[in-house]
């Protein structure tokens, strides 16, 4: 009986040790996955659709609801208190991209959300237009899902 107890105890130590080592190795991924509630990314996809539809109409008030805090990666430009464009990082320095320039049509091809585990985690969604690719980086903040970075890449 003692041999059986020793085998069970040894297996338990190996399983617990493996779990601790695995959590240590994949800790950032597990933490990001839970913080972002990555099992339900539908709010990001629908938020992307709504943001791009509002931008295509030039509706800065609606688009503003999806915009996170200003940062070096994304600086909203407002005129008369209304969102009209973004200063987006580009070669040679930031470029002023109007809402209509970012989203010339309300119906781009929108890819499924993709989880990025680096830097605390975020979710990216790509929207493909005929002349450019727009990547929106979303984060789950206290105020809900917000866009924290916009990448614009010309494809023509």
Detailed description of the structure:
The protein is of the alpha+beta class. Helix content is 37%, strand content 32%. It has five helices and eight strands; from the N terminus they run ααααβββαβββββ. The strands form two sheets. Strands 4, 5, 6, 7 and 8 form a five-stranded antiparallel sheet that branches. Strands 1-2-3 form a three-stranded antiparallel sheet. Strand 5 (114-116) and strand 6 (122-128) form a beta hairpin. The protein is elongated. The model has no long low-confidence stretch (mean pLDDT 88).
Distance between the termini: 74 Å
The SS-based structural class is alpha+beta
Mean pLDDT score, rounded?
88
Q: Assign an overall shape.
A: elongated
* Strands, count: 8
What is the tally of helical segments?
Answer: 5
Sum this structure up briefly.
The model has no long low-confidence stretch (mean pLDDT 88). It is built from five helices and eight strands, in the order H-H-H-H-E-E-E-H-E-E-E-E-E. With 156 residues, it is α+β, with helices and mostly antiparallel strands.
